[in-house]
Amino acid sequence: MLATMAPPIIAVVNQKGGVGKTTTAINLSAAMAEVGHPTLLVDLDPQANSTSGLGLDPARARLSVYHLLTGEAAVEQVVQPTGVAGLTLVPSHIDLAGAEIELAGMPDREALLQKGLAVIPPGVEIVLIDCPPSLGLLTLNALVAATSMLIPTQCEYFALEGLRHLMYTHQLVRSRLNPKLAIAGIVMTQFDTRTTLAWDVLQTVRRTHPHHVLETLIPRNVRISEAPSHGKSVLEYDPTCRGAAAYRALAKELLER
């Protein structure tokens, strides 16, 4: 069914760093591809961790998401294959770090990514966007281009405050720029079943956002942390570990929604 319509575009977003955003973008996109849904991952973070985490050298990319945003290249010119069958990547580059200043003076500056993704490469069924850990112009571009937003949230109390700000941003974007922007879900990451804190935070988030919290919990798992240093998703690095199983379950849950 996905192949017969415009691909859903999911922005993986949280303005707080260290919540598992890029980890989720990499491993969820790999899991989507693994179950037979060709996926395009757009690395919109100047740190380029999704790019390096999939084994590509950001410094060697001739064309990147920067060129897509500025209109210097079309998406099919920027897309690169990865080591995962069915998963392609629009890489990031350090040049993107100064792009917000440059892009700020361009017409329709908040819709540049939307224009760049107007024509998705043939065969792609799902697009994921790894956003920077901020609510600046790059993240705004992702939210305008997206059909939904996936919010990775760490199981700690500081994350709850960030979640409130993000929900407010969602309402602003819906009211002013992208009325179709839905919430794909809130996914709890780095979940340690042994701690009371993790369960308390989960209960609080489920109480305050009852319709958005996903059932899948991403565990605190050393294999998830190790995989990027090998340029692989955790599904490639250790296919049978708890982390890989969790991201497969997350992909299944989102596809069923």
Describe the structure.
- With 257 residues, this protein is α/β, with parallel strands linked by helices.
- The protein is built from 12 helices and 8 strands.
- The protein has a single domain, classed as P-loop containing nucleotide triphosphate hydrolases (Rossmann fold), CATH 3.40.50.
- β3 and β4 form a beta hairpin.
- 41% of the residues lie in helices and 17% in strands.
- It has an 8-stranded mixed β-sheet, sandwiched between helices.
Briefly characterize the structure.
The protein is α/β, with parallel strands linked by helices and 257 residues long.
Sheet with the most strands: spatial strand order: 3-4-2-5-1-6-7-8
* Discrete helix count: 12
CATH architecture: 3-Layer(aba) Sandwich
CATH topology: Rossmann fold
Note the main sheet: 8 strands, mixed
What's the total count of β strands? 8
Strand content: 15-25%
Number of domains: 1
**What's the helical proportion of residues?**
40-55%
Radius of gyration over all CA atoms, rounded: 17 Å
What structural keywords apply?
257 residues; alpha/beta; Rossmann fold; eight-stranded mixed beta sheet; 12 helices; 8 strands; 17% strand
